Amino acid sequence: MQGKALRDVLIQAKTHGARWAATAAQRVNRGDAAGALLFLLATTALAVITVRIMGSNASLSFYDLLRLQNGGDVRGSQSTGAGIYALLWLLAVIGPLLPSLMPQRAARLGYFLPLALWGIALAGVASQVRELMNATRQFAGFMGNSSASRNMAGDMASSLWSSLSFGFGFYLSLAIAVAFTVRGIAVLRRRA
Q1: How many contiguous H segments (helices) and E segments (strands) does the chain have?
Q2: CA 57, CA 144: separation in Å to the nearest integer?
Q3: pLDDT digits 0-9 by tens, 13-22
Q4: Which of 3, 17, 35, 160 has the fewest CB atoms within 10 Å, measured from its CB?
Q5: In the chain, domain spans
Q6: Count of other CB atoms within 10 angstroms of residue 43
């Protein structure tokens, strides 16, 4: 596109985009919007888990945990994204707004998307913990099958567990997911 045609397209996009944004802002439930914004902040900016190992701390947000499940690393390199988990995260953030924007009955299921994301993330973390425990057992097997090696493997696992602490993002995002689920159940019962 050349100069004037490109300008006309941008002006039309700006006009229509502003109109659609104004319509959406009028239709969205304010409580749902505030909850979605808090869920966005709780899952990206606030620490969900803090790991203290050998004097250093690594704080991970919910989104960082999703990146880890997709094959990222703890050091925070931005080379690996969250992959399909990023799409699920985006749906969980936007999902509670869908009932306000769409008249379809299926849009009411958007209230359950944050809890579904929590379930998916919990299943992934449980899988990674299971792999870690299997690696610990294999390590104990390499050292011999004595009670001392089994005790050492158990001590390694317990020290890892004791080095974890849950941050404010964990509690806030879980509370918001549960609140949206309760709201979704109430909406489905009321409009059934």
Answers
A1: 8, 3
A2: 32
A3: 777 777 777 7
A4: 3
A5: 30-190
A6: 28
